[in-house]
């Protein structure tokens, strides 16, 4: 038996899986945001789906709405084809909201949608509202463009979430029948189609379904879709020819757009549509974990490095281009025109969390946290009713959240992420628990043959002290992995008041001991404000800096600093002070002495340098911008070396 106060070095084992939403209760920073989802956002999403006519397309008892939204991309797609995915994400959001706070009226409204899908489903299990009601007879003819398998993935995720949150099986059974139909239709056997999703997502949904039902064939199907992607002859080219089209007529010109240009094990660079890319890599990581498939490790590592080292915005977003909603070329990170879609940040969180399935690694957890607290969280207003699609790092005052969109993928996506945030806090293996993110709340975790309750008490991310009460049902030996953020200058750990002298390994401190009820772990993380600069190849950020504290990227807003934010200059030696504020739901502001350039007259050019006046700047967390008076916003500040 180990000394209970002894800590030893241990090696992470494979298959660190997340806990389900019904096993965790969230308070603190994210608790208030889940409150908002439950009180406002879930109902808002439902109302706006109804107003858009989405249920009319699903329910065969309603008049057929026909084509409501026009075709785009050379008349190949309309976002109306994706409505099933929006319903899937809404139901997932509602499920997590119901888990957090019972709401009989909301639950009844979800049940009505579930009943409509039950009426819509065909005898062979097929389920897609567009191809059943709007364009019948064309199923499985255009996987590349029309999101058929993508829709299935989101419906499956919604069904799994609703089952976990409510215990109701009806929607899960409906989607299992659809998954069975897909399993019969696609695969390597004679008579099956060797296709795969044009917009990846089904891969990771099938892994969720397999874990929930215990059905290995769903995991096998996810692996087939990953393995088959980009193989020669290319399925999407063959499919286009069967439709009477030439492959080169593809609107986006290259199959890099949907990551089908080569087999996944040969892919080394992140290309194409950002959301599709991260969903695919998330599915690859899930398959790597479930099948212990090391052949996926090298491409995943190369893809990760290519994104993080050359193409990731400081706020955790990626994909600078609106044209393809994705990647362009390395170090292309413009600020004011940054696309950085909310869905892409959410998808990056999915990818990062699944990279942690192979064991605790701070590289992935740091980026997961970076994307959650900044780009992703900015996608939802503080009142839970308005949304960002794209997330620039500078604005002249004309960029605001909107109520709805012709392609409303982002509102339910950020909502389901926030509502399920507790499932990202922990990873569980047979004999260990990894704490990836810190937030007040409780979790019931099955590990090492018993149930352990972990209770976090903390004001993180605004304060660095985290206290974790460890309460196993019986004394049990297991390893508790505590993440030490890579941005922290230092951290200290104590167990039951006794300091632990253990250096982080791969970004985590491993506490291996026999745990007993009443054990308390204390972690103190340094939150000293810091300045960040960019690689010189990022031409838009030369001579500029970003202020960060903890996981937060900070920005200037006109409401605090006046107009012409680019006239403010921050010295490298200026002291950065913190200030608690009750504004914006309660935040910590950063303040500093600065200078402001002034310009006399309207002339475009002048001889010499502008004059400067003393000024004071105030910065707020990026996620909270555009929640007060409208105006300019700036993340990358002009800096002056001294």
List keywords for this structure.
Immunoglobulin-like, alpha+beta, disordered N terminus, 642 residues, Glycosyltransferase, 6-stranded mixed β-barrel
Q: Can you offer a commentary on this structure?
A:
- 33% of the residues lie in helices and 19% in strands.
- It is α+β, with helices and mostly antiparallel strands and 642 residues long.
- The chain has three domains: 21-424, Glycosyltransferase; 429-525, Golgi alpha-mannosidase II (Immunoglobulin-like, Sandwich), CATH 2.60.40; 530-640, no CATH class.
- The chain has a seven-stranded antiparallel β-sheet.
- α8 runs parallel beside α11.
- The longest helix is centred in the N-terminal third of the chain and has 24 residues, at 28-51.
Write the layout of secondary structure elements.
Blueprint (H helix, E strand, L loop, with lengths): L23 E3 L1 H24 L2 H5 L24 H18 L3 H17 L8 H6 L13 H19 L3 H16 L16 H12 L2 H13 L6 H8 L31 H17 L6 H14 L31 H14 L6 H17 L15 E2 L14 H10 L6 E3 L3 E4 L5 E7 L2 E9 L6 E8 L3 E8 L7 E5 L2 E2 L8 E8 L3 E7 L4 E3 L11 E6 L2 E6 H4 L6 E4 L5 E5 L5 E12 L12 E11 L11 E2 L2 E4 L2
Parallel strand pairs: 4-8, 16-21
Antiparallel strand pairs: 1-5, 2-20, 3-4, 5-6, 6-7, 7-12, 8-11, 9-10, 9-12, 13-14, 14-15, 14-21, 15-19, 15-20, 16-18, 17-18, 18-19
Percent strand equals 15-25%
What is the 3D shape? globular
**Share of helical residues:** 25-40%
The CATH topology of the largest domain, please?
Glycosyltransferase
Would you tell me the structural class of the helices and strands? alpha+beta
Tell me about the largest β-sheet. 7 strands, antiparallel
Radius of gyration: 25 Å
Uncertain residue segments:
1-13
Number of domains: 3
Strand order in the sheet with the most strands: 1-5-6-7-12-9-10
Give the CATH architecture of the largest domain.
Alpha/alpha barrel
